[in-house]
Each structure stands twice: as C-alpha cells, then as structure tokens.
Specification:
The chain folds into 2 domains: 32 residues; 203 residues, Rossmann fold (3-Layer(aba) Sandwich), CATH 3.40.50. 34% of the residues lie in helices and 23% in strands. Strands 3, 4, 5, 6, 7, 8, 9, 10 and 11 form a 9-stranded mixed beta sheet that branches. A two-stranded antiparallel ribbon has the order 1-2. Strand 3 and strand 4 form a beta hairpin. Helix 2 packs parallel to helix 5. The radius of gyration is 24 Å and the shape is globular. The N terminus is likely disordered.
C-alpha cells in the first residue's frame, strides 16, 4: 500500500473526534446561557437559601422577543433576551404609582391604599437587598450615584380593595371580604424594559382565611405584599443564578 494513501481508520477517528469536540462546544454554550433564554431543557425549580423549593415556571419564547415564564405565582412574567439581573451596581425602587379605582372619599380606604404603596417599596427594598443580587438597593433617586450602572424598578397598583371584617366573618374562608392588590411592575434600564411582571394577591395567608375577621385590613394586606415580594425576589434570585437549579 502506498504510504501516502490516508488510512481509512485514521480518517474515521479524526471525524469522530471533531464531532465530539463540536458537540462539547455546543453543550458548553448552552450550559453558560443566562436564565433569560428559553431554558426548557433546564429545571424550572431551584433550591432557596432557606431550603424551600422555588418554581419559576416553564419558559417559552415571547412573540415580540424575550422570554415568557409561566410562573405559578405571577399572572405575567417576561424577561428580555440575555438579561439576568447581573452586571448592575444599583437597583432603584421608585415610589409606587396607582391607577386603581376605589372610594377616595372613604378615609380608611385611602389610608390602607397609601400604606400598601409604602409597604410595597419597603418590603421590596428589604428582601431584594438580602439576596445580594445588587451591591446597592435604594428607594430615593438622590441616592443613585452618577457613575453606577443602575436598574429602575417601577410598580403600579392597578387593582385595590381594602376589604372588610364583616364580610370576612361570613365568607372570609372563601375569599369574601379579603383585601385585593394587583401590581404591574417593570425593571428598566434607561428607556428599555428588561423585566416585567403582573401579580395579584387577596388574603393568601391561612390566618387571613381562618381568623381574618379578627385581623385589620392593613395587616392582611401586609401579608399579601410580603407573599408577592417573596415570589418576585425568588424569581430574580433564580434568574440571577443565586439559587441553584434542581437538575
């Protein structure tokens, strides 16, 4: 046999090796993809620092770009392509806005509504700060340093009801008389939306349903806000890679 003639077995080995390297490269690229890409091949569940199992929902490409998540705790949940909350120095949580319709002549209704706006910012700042996703979480624009790469979290209350103890006495177990709070939120970088969500809460705690007649409307709503904020912070933590996925 001519020594210059290629050995067929050597060619096969080289072809197989090349294919293996190519596949390994593809696999490496997928593994390093951020949480803001359709990750149906990855588990939607992760383990929180406190041992809870967090489910962010299955992902799917959004028609206009980005990724939708079918989050079990949020009615809408969207993340921009390639965005995972990392690489920013500061998160600015703006004062809560409201477009909700309610009885503005009712002083108690107005009081609880204002408390909801304030408590939403406080709960968000406290819990997101504890997750160490950002070096700084601020609630005043004057605290934003000009040289810091910053995201802004804007929230709007779109549905609000104070609730009432009398109604909870009769049908509180079935949701009657419970406060209602629906929030639409978005994280923006400049004029560009990076993350949007919508979530609703109405007497979610067992205490609100079982003994809500003895609780203040604002106390039940604080529990609802805490529930909403916890689920939001959990989602951000998983996407940011702070909570490891369960494979």
């Amino acid at each position: 046999m001519n020594s210059n003639t290629p050995d067929l077995r050597s060619l096969v080995k080289l072809t197989v090796l090349g294919a293996a390297i190519a596949l390994a490269g593809c696999s490496s690229t997928r593994d390093k993809s951020s949480g803001a890409t359709p990750d149906g091949h990855r588990s939607s569940k992760a383990k929180a620092d406190d041992g809870r199992t967090v489910d962010i929902g299955k992902s799917s490409p959004a028609s206009g770009g980005g990724v939708n998540y079918k989050n079990p705790h949020m009615e809408k949940c969207w993340v921009a392509d390639g965005f995972d909350f990392n690489g920013y120095d500061t998160l600015y949580i703006a004062p809560t806005l409201s477009t909700a319709k309610f009885d503005t002549k009712n002083k108690e209704e107005v009081k609880v509504h204002e408390l909801a706006k304030e408590n939403l910012v406080k709960e968000l700042a406290s819990l997101i700060s504890s997750r160490k996703i950002f070096a700084n979480v601020v609630t005043r624009d004057s605290d934003i340093k000009p040289d810091m790469k910053t995201l802004k979290l804007e929230n709007t209350i779109t549905e609000f009801t104070k609730g009432g103890g009398a109604a909870r006495y009769f049908v509180g177990l079935y949701g009657g008389g419970q406060p209602v709070l629906r929030v639409q939120g978005k994280v923006v970088e400049g004029d560009n939306a990076r993350f949007t969500f919508e979530a609703r809460r109405s007497g979610v705690s067992a205490g609100a349903r079982m003994t809500g007649v003895f609780m203040k409307d604002e106390d039940i709503q604080i529990q609802d806000i805490h529930s909403l904020v916890l689920d939001l912070a959990d989602f951000m933590s998983v996407i940011a890679g702070k909570f490891p996925r369960r494979e």
